[in-house]
Amino acid sequence: MNLEYLSQCILILFNFLIIFSVILFSDDNNINSYSGSYSEKDKNRKIQGAELFLNRLLFFLITFYFSYIIFLCYLPNTK
């Protein structure tokens, strides 16, 4: 297995992690992000639809990312 190819896959996967986390955790009302106000109805809000899909996808990508890093650490050196 080519190590350069594997490191490029890690870079692409890391970029997807950043993109999905920014999409998932962006607040609709950006003023509340800076003021720190947090309403009671947001606290008990249920995750649905696209947000649920992105949440599960982010969890899968994080798990895959760390398992891929561990796999690369134990990969024998092939020169």
Structure description:
With 79 residues, this protein is an all-alpha fold. The chain has one domain. It has four helices and no strands. Helix 1 (3-25) runs antiparallel to helix 4 (49-74). It is elongated. The model has no long low-confidence stretch (mean pLDDT 72).
In short:
The chain has 79 residues and is mainly alpha-helical. 75% of the residues lie in helices and 0% in strands. The protein is built from 4 helices and no strands.
How many DSSP H or I helices?
4
What is the mean predicted local confidence, pLDDT?
72
Give me the strand/helix succession.
HHHH
State the distance separating the first and last CA atoms. Answer: 10 Å
Please tell me what the overall shape is: elongated
Strand content: under 5%
| Rg value | 18 Å
Number of extended strands:
0
Helix-strand category: mainly alpha
Number of structural domains = 1
Low-confidence stretches: none
Helicity, as a percent range: over 70%
Give a short account of the largest sheet. none
Organism: Phytoplasma mali (strain AT)
Transmembrane segments: 5-25, 53-75
Keywords: Membrane, Transmembrane, Transmembrane helix
Protein name: Protein-export membrane protein SecG
Task: Lay out the secondary structure.
Elements: H1 3-25, H2 30-35, H3 40-43, H4 49-74
Keywords: Membrane, Transmembrane, Transmembrane helix
Transmembrane segments: 5-25, 53-75
Protein name: Protein-export membrane protein SecG
